[in-house]
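// run 5 | inverse folding | seed 20
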């Protein structure tokens, strides 16, 4: 493969019902950083039907141009037409790097693209960088999260990675950039033979889920609440309420069924970087730390003074959370009053 034919950093900008997902803006911020290192451009791929007007948002968050792949067959995400359309673009344009959000859609689309393009794919990345040789360094947890592996794809292009939502930082909205919309409409060559699935109806169930990724304050509970899970969760909820935040959890808590999976922070949960992260009874296993280590301020409360969580904490309190947290709540409420 002649790698010199491949250049620029492409981002698959996921949209659902015409709304661009936040992970697309996060990826554009990182793509901008990578492209500047390589002296290349950032190109967003926006696929759907009647979504051209959304392109200016992508420009404002870091894209140099947007390829608007507009077709009725792409109104809703269906694996086959999306895979066909994006594959056609990649083969024609030859990007050096392709970034995709590790959402349910991205995890379905990414492997299919890599198989068709005969290139590698590093899934669920938590870090991206450029090597001295100009290759993409893709870092992800490996061996059950016990170590971080950095993977390269030196012989094939494009270099593909899916990136977990909430990991990368979104760059500030550039109003001037939004006014400089550079959009190229692309009409994919799709036929009836490319579509083997038809969506007849979409039914949504109304279920309130906790928004960990967008929260400014997260109070998480771990195995340390095992002596009285109900009381431990109640204390976490009260503390989160006093701080204007939400309740998170380690995998041990969700595995036990004390809290639902949407509360889970960590390698197999959600990645968060709030202004304040409070860890109650969480030891600090690498699997959990991978999902919260970039929080601005980390406050840890644990009975074990040797708990690994204290190694990354901004403030640490060695003590029984059932005694410490009520005092914290009382002081916070007094300060607010």
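// decoded
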């Amino acid at each position: 493969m002649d790698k010199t034919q491949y250049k620029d950093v492409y981002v698959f900008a996921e949209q659902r019902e015409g709304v661009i997902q936040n992970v697309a803006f996060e990826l554009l911020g990182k793509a901008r950083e990578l492209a500047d290192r390589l002296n290349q451009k950032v190109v967003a791929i926006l696929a759907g039907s009647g979504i051209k007007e959304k392109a200016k948002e992508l420009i404002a968050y870091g894209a140099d141009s947007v390829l608007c792949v507009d077709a009725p067959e792409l109104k809703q995400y269906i694996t086959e037409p999306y895979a066909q359309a994006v594959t056609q673009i990649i083969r024609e344009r030859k990007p050096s790097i392709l970034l995709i959000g590790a959402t349910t859609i991205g995890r379905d689309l990414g492997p299919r693209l890599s198989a068709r393009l005969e290139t590698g794919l590093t899934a669920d990345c938590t870090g991206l960088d450029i090597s001295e040789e100009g290759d993409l360094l893709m870092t992800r947890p490996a061996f059950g999260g016990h170590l971080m592996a950095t993977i390269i794809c030196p012989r094939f292009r494009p270099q593909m990675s899916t990136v977990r939502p909430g990991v990368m930082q979104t760059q500030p909205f550039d109003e001037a950039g939004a006014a400089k919309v550079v959009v190229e409409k692309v009409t994919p060559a799709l036929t009836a033979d490319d579509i083997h699935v038809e969506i007849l109806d979409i039914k949504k169930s109304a279920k309130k889920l906790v928004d960990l990724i967008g929260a400014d304050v997260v109070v998480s509970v771990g195995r340390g609440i095992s002596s009285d899970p109900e009381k431990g969760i109640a204390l976490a909820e009260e503390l989160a309420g006093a701080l204007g935040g939400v309740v998170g959890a380690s995998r041990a808590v969700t595995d036990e069924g004390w809290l639902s999976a949407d509360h889970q922070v960590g390698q197999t949960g959600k990645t968060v970087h709030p202004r304040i992260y409070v860890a109650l009874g969480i030891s600090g296993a690498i699997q959990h730390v991978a999902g919260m280590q970039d929080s601005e301020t980390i406050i840890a409360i644990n009975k074990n003074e040797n708990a690994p969580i204290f190694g990354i904490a901004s403030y640490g309190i060695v003590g029984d959370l059932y005694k410490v947290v009520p005092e914290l709540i009382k002081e916070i409420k007094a300060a607010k009053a």
